[in-house]
Write a structure and sequence with these properties.
400 residues, mainly beta, 20-stranded antiparallel sheet, 65% strand
Length: 400
């Protein structure tokens, strides 16, 4: 039992995912009471609490059982009533959400599926209260056969943002986002921002782990709205050679279309990435990353901005578990009309030093010039504005 500030998640976050991410500045914790219990083949949780930015009480219940080896069944329920919730026959018409899920893992294969429904009350635009129904569906499966592995996911979300603005801007739920998270700067520059109120899509991936450290990966995904209008499409291929003596080499090609709903703007991106890692000693390594991206802006109904190219280079030295020193350089050939608000002509050089202490605390010193862009995790993004100067970031972990 926990009283006060708490986080938690039901299943894979379809209904409830109170979480903190300091990089994205997300903090959807609740203040109230959380109770957990478990026994042989079952787990349960219940809570009652209030999000920091919403004046309402949220109540939740989750139960999961294991009816057979490697399999589980679960159900979740949440309900809430805010200050503007209507009253009928002397009772509050509470909003609620329900879900059921099942998972199975046998040998080298696994599968998961969850369906949820949400009912909310709102103004119909004519001054009367009306019921609004939404749904969320997610399913995923993965398997392996020898050196090959496969995974596939599908999702369908409609009016399924649960308590949007729980911390001022983020939903209290965090349904799975079917876009690949990359390790390269330019591939994360123009991501898809999940919209749990209006999207559906799929993602598939195949990987091969060959002899002598060879490996390859193929990933493809597509996301559209409920009216079949495509918002995001990506094809990514990667090949790498691990354990080539003290070296690791990797190369990738990414083809992507992104349609910006807010700006009614369509852009295509062709990106080449390459990386070389040298393990100089058991604890010291050097890496070089090179990224090149060609952008075609087909534009808005009022016209496009044409084409341009940009490059990003990173040279990094790491002393395992203690120091990381990096030098970065970004360039592009944009003309003035293609630049974002407050974006200069470049180039954009920067230096960074990261120190990890024995207690897990982290100190980061960054100096230079950088473009604005998105930082994302799991389909949730924040926009970092352009910056020039010195930045100090620290995370301290105190052991009581």
């Amino acid at each position: 039992m926990r009283a006060g500030h708490f986080y938690g998640m039901f299943g894979r976050g379809m209904l409830f995912a109170a979480r903190e991410d300091r990089t994205l500045r997300i903090d959807t914790a609740l203040d109230g009471l959380l109770v957990r219990a478990n026994g042989a083949g079952w787990r349960a949780a219940a809570f009652s609490g209030a999000p920091r930015a919403l004046a309402l009480d949220v109540r939740g219940l989750d139960l999961e059982v294991d009816p057979l080896a490697g399999g589980s069944l679960g159900a979740s329920a949440m309900t809430w009533a805010g200050p503007q919730t209507p009253v009928r026959d002397g009772a509050l018409l509470r909003d609620y959400a329900l879900s059921g899920r099942a998972s199975l893992a046998r040998g080298g294969a696994s599968a998961y599926a969850e369906f949820a429904s949400q009912r909310t009350w709102g103004d119909d635009g004519a001054g009367a209260w009306k019921e609004f129904w939404g749904h969320g569906f997610y399913a995923g499966a993965a398997g392996a056969a020898g050196p090959l592995s496969f995974s596939g996911e599908v999702m369908d979300y409609h009016r399924f943002a649960v308590l949007d603005g729980a911390d001022g801007r983020t939903t209290l739920n965090n349904p799975p986002s079917l876009t690949r998270e990359h390790l390269y700067n330019l591939l994360n520059r123009n991501p898809y921002l999940r919209d749990a109120d209006d999207e559906r899509g799929w993602q598939a991936e195949a990987a091969w782990a060959g002899p002598r450290g060879w490996g390859a990966l193929l990933n493809t995904s597509r996301i559209e709205n409920q009216n079949d209008v495509r918002h995001f499409r990506e094809h990514y291929a990667q090949v790498q050679r691990e354990d080539w003596g003290p070296f690791m080499l990797r190369a990738g090609l990414d083809l992507r279309d992104v349609f910006s709903k807010g700006l009614q703007r369509d852009e295509t991106f062709t990106t080449l990435v390459g990386e070389a890692l040298w393990h100089a000693t058991a604890v010291d390594s050097w890496s070089l990353k090179a990224e090149h991206q060609h952008v075609e802006d087909t534009g808005t109904p009022h016209g496009g901005l044409g084409e341009f190219d940009r490059q990003f280079f990173t040279l990094e030295y790491a002393h395992a578990g203690q120091w990381t020193l990096s030098a970065m350089l970004e360039t592009n050939n944009k003309y003035a009309a293609q630049r974002e608000f407050l974006e200069g002509a470049g180039p954009y050089p920067a230096l960074q030093a990261v120190r990890t202490l024995q207690d897990g605390s982290l100190l980061s010193l960054w100096a230079g010039k950088r473009l604005g862009g998105y930082v994302c995790a799991g389909g949730v993004c924040k926009y970092e504005p352009a910056f020039e100067g010195v930045e100090l970031f620290a995370t301290f972990r105190l052991d009581p």
